[in-house]
Amino acid sequence: MIKGFPFLLVDIPKCEQNIAFMVQKATKAKVLLRPHFKTHQSLAVGELFRKQGVNRITVSSVAMAEYFAAGGWNDITIAFPFVPQMVQRVNALALGVDLNVTFSSSQNLLATIDRVESKVGVFVEVDVGHGRSGVAVENTRELALMVNLISSKPNLVFKGFLTHAGHSYSARSREEVDKLHSEALSKLAKLRSFWVDQFPDLAISYGDTPTCSVSDEFWGISEIRPGNFVFYDVMQYQIGSCTTSQVALALICPVVDVYPGKQKIIVHGGAIHLSKDRVEIDGADCYGFVCRFDGKGWSNPIPNAMVTSLSQEHGVISYSGNDLDGIKPGDLLAILPVHSCLAVDCMGQMFDSEGNTYDVLPKNKR
Amino acid sequence: MIKGFPFLLVDIPKCEQNIAFMVQKATKAKVLLRPHFKTHQSLAVGELFRKQGVNRITVSSVAMAEYFAAGGWNDITIAFPFVPQMVQRVNALALGVDLNVTFSSSQNLLATIDRVESKVGVFVEVDVGHGRSGVAVENTRELALMVNLISSKPNLVFKGFLTHAGHSYSARSREEVDKLHSEALSKLAKLRSFWVDQFPDLAISYGDTPTCSVSDEFWGISEIRPGNFVFYDVMQYQIGSCTTSQVALALICPVVDVYPGKQKIIVHGGAIHLSKDRVEIDGADCYGFVCRFDGKGWSNPIPNAMVTSLSQEHGVISYSGNDLDGIKPGDLLAILPVHSCLAVDCMGQMFDSEGNTYDVLPKNKR
């Protein structure tokens, strides 16, 4: 039951369409879809995937793996580098489910490997251009060192290489996404051909929401791990991954005050609801698009209106033109978040248009 | 008990000192201290205030008011504009505690006033320069309209005027804070003198962490409402409100990877832990200062090192010099957050150095 405002409204039919789109794409491209569940962190949203045949998932923390394992998911990859602080919980969890872990360097491998007691699948993270973490895909010596170390442990099953082409998030057109996608595939194909004789079942795990939304070709790839696409958001719209009508999540905010002279509206909806993630639009910070709300669903974004500033509980909408004339305190507006993963994490729960609750991994279970 | 990493460590003796500093300042200036509890959202941290004689508090939402009321606080101001969506819960809550609400315009007053049934104290929000919400302090006609409306309702007790000089957050020196503080006091003194004959008990409620930390004079002010000072953070340090040694909160993060060639370190500590709030330092985005951690407490910040990028779970530390030589995966670093209010909201719980838990208002109670 919806208790208070603002609240996060999820459009379930849109989610189902977004999932179907990616399931069909994976089927057609003959890659496994192992969606990243860090976006929704929700067993109830997970069920929407299960209904469409998804049975392998990706998460970004041990706590998230525990949560989904308790909800019946039994093939889980933790796509975050494995550090010693996680060992105890990974050892326990891997007794009950097929668990894959990730190492991003020989250093974090060496720091942890001797303390892993359960049987786990192991991915080695490679960097295809993002520059955040993972071994440079060309660094054969470091990769060989890691693969040999993993192979020397009977309880570690080397699965293959995993990458996150996170630099796709700085793309601002489908063409840019396509270009870096082709470059990544080409690098991964070389990597695969180097290792596939020794490991015929070698997995190449790849794919974020921009590349998986825009591209249809995944030659040489075994599985894709997009996450955000289930909801999409303003950032993905700006990248070119989706239309605004595919965005399946909005924060429903009471209007607090209207200042027509300044062309500003204050809503109850701030940094603890939307997060402070932002995109730049026409040189200004944007924290969300603004839609009308009819009590069940939301309209297309109102042109020339966006959230331009957030404090803890306040959101400031700036607009031009007269589309927001007549809005008054107590009315409700729907804000499309810039980054749906963070909005879900901020809000901790979602509701659908029937008032059903979609719980999220609680903060104190992490 | 600390379950996982990263976790939020609170330095209780520092909190107690920060509280004592503000209690003494308020006593000396003969103003009431009504601290803003939106920073910690925690009954256990609230007890630290109670021990030092604080018995009136400020919150930023009805949910927060309910949470603290259930914990025994019985004089609470909701310093966020009252909208119709809050009426039912306010009516119920005001039956059990002394509750003050805030209106920021005649429009939100008119939208709500007829539905308020319980006895509540009422503040009118004025704007002394921040430009976010509230009636311009000079707009006597609008203020008179609101005061008359409030006074016409027997269950509404007009308390006075409330302001948030949030533009102090854009100050970057104690001198700048002092200057805007003096301007605000001067405007509020005029407001007070206009109304005090009609309302001899008129309250002027003022004060954010920058002005209350930096300034000692509060002539004409009845009560101050700073909140952040209990923890402080990198933003307050940059404003000039505190030293880094007064910061009482740090995120304890496992080191994931080290890239000495790039002078970068990856930690487990991202946007869902620290929030994406940031300050600019030497032209670069800063998401936190970096300290050593000895298992109990943290060092002074390491010079020439800061968190320069965050994704959902990853933090990227950039550094120069050799202070971080020798750090390796599995080591722990302490990150001072840019904005402690948001880091607490992100993490949902804190721990002290003894491993005691400090719970925070759960997300699903909001």
Biggest interface pair, counts = A-B, 60 and 60 residues
Largest sheet of chain A: 9 strands, parallel
Strand content of chain A: 25-35%
Gross morphology of chain A is elongated
CATH domain class name of the largest domain in chain A: Alpha Beta
Radius of gyration of chain A: 22 Å
Structural category of chain A is alpha/beta
Question: Which helices and strands, and how do they pair?
Answer:
Two copies of one chain form a homodimer.
Chain A (H helix, E strand, L loop, with lengths): L6 E4 L1 H18 L2 E2 L9 H9 L5 E3 L2 H9 L4 E7 L5 H7 L4 E6 L2 H7 L7 E8 L7 E2 L3 H12 L4 E7 L11 H22 L7 E4 L2 H6 L8 E2 L9 H6 L9 E11 L4 E5 L2 H4 L4 E3 L2 E3 L1 E5 L12 E6 L3 E6 L12 E6 L2 H8 L1 E3 L5 E3 L7
Parallel strand pairs in A: 2-10, 3-4, 4-5, 5-6, 6-7, 6-8, 8-9, 9-10
Antiparallel strand pairs in A: 1-11, 11-12, 11-18, 12-17, 13-14, 15-16, 15-18, 16-17, 19-20
Question: How would you explain this protein's 3D organization?
Answer:
The structure is a homodimer of 366-residue chains. Chain A is of the alpha/beta class and 366 residues long. Chain A has 2 domains: 31-230, Alanine racemase (TIM Barrel, Alpha-Beta Barrel), CATH 3.20.20; 244-359, Lyase, Ornithine Decarboxylase, Chain A, domain 1. The first copy, chain A, has helices at 12-29, 43-51, 62-70, 87-93, 106-112, 140-151, 174-195, 209-214, 234-239, 271-274, 340-347, and strands at residues 7-10, 32-33, 57-59, 75-81, 98-103, 120-127, 135-136, 156-162, 203-206, 223-224, 249-259, 264-268, 279-281, 284-286, 288-292, 305-310, 314-319, 332-337, 349-351, 357-359. Chain A starts with 6 loop residues before the first strand and ends in a 7-residue tail after the last strand. The mean pLDDT of chain A is 96. Chains A and B meet through helix 5, strand 11 and helix 11 of A and helix 5, strand 11 and helix 11 of B.
